[in-house]
Amino acid sequence: MGFNKIIEGKSAEAWDIYIPNLSVDCVVFGFHDTTLKVLVTRLKEVDLWALPGGYVLKTENLKEAANRILFSRTGAENIYLQEFKVFSDLNRTDGIFDNFPDTLWNKQRFLSVGFYALVDFHHVNLVMDDFSDACEWKSIDELPDFMMDHRSIFDKALETLRRQLNHKPIGYSLLPEKFTMPELQKLYEIILAKKLNRGNFYRKMLRYDILQKLDESRKGGAHKAPDLYKFDIEKYQLALKNGLNEGW
């Protein structure tokens, strides 16, 4: 079925089950192959990309809506979610639904609540919905052309992630359970958009006593196998509560 028919068919039902003029857009971050990635979908017959999003059922709150939307896209549960901004500019949907009647649900003015989500890349199974012909991970350095104001939503999410790096469990949520110190440093460098001194970074991290060094190493490289670590979650949460207080 074509994109127009699908949109029109869903519109009548939407008026009955969703809260009017309110939507949710999610910026889903994952870390893989030393690259920070974001989950994006491509709309059928439009050739524009979008962040995962949707509407809020009359029977749920905002976070429940965000979790439902993300589960339908990723199959992942217990995702770390952080609300970060409401996007309310006029005419946010201009250009996408111009050829549809004004009564179309999707053509109404929507205030969108932005959430960023942090997931373990390996625990995600990507799923396309009826409106999309692609659902993919893209490096934050190689983003496609977004529809509407979704690029602005992404930019604000990344800015918020950078600002909250010392106060939210970002490393714990994005890295696998076991990781190397170079992987942790690379994650921080990507989020901060700057190169960090290796020795200083290691000393700072070890000084916080939030990492457990394991009796294991990462095999398979050409050089000496790096040691593996995992977070001591209780100490990590306490340190984040007080703030890491580092000027990276």
UniProtKB/TrEMBL annotation:
Q: State a single Gene Ontology molecular function.
A: hydrolase activity
Q: Give the keywords, sorted.
A: Hydrolase
Going by the entry's taxonomy, the superkingdom of the source organism is recorded as: Bacteria
Question: Where do the Nudix hydrolase domain residues begin and end?
Answer: 19-162
Q: Does the keyword Nucleotidyltransferase apply?
A: no
> A single Pfam family, by name?
WHD_NrtR
- PANTHER family referenced in this protein's UniProt entry, alphabetically: ADP-RIBOSE PYROPHOSPHATASE, SLR1690 PROTEIN
Q: What protein name does the entry list?
A: NUDIX hydrolase
Question: Which organism does this record belong to?
Answer: Flavobacterium gawalongense
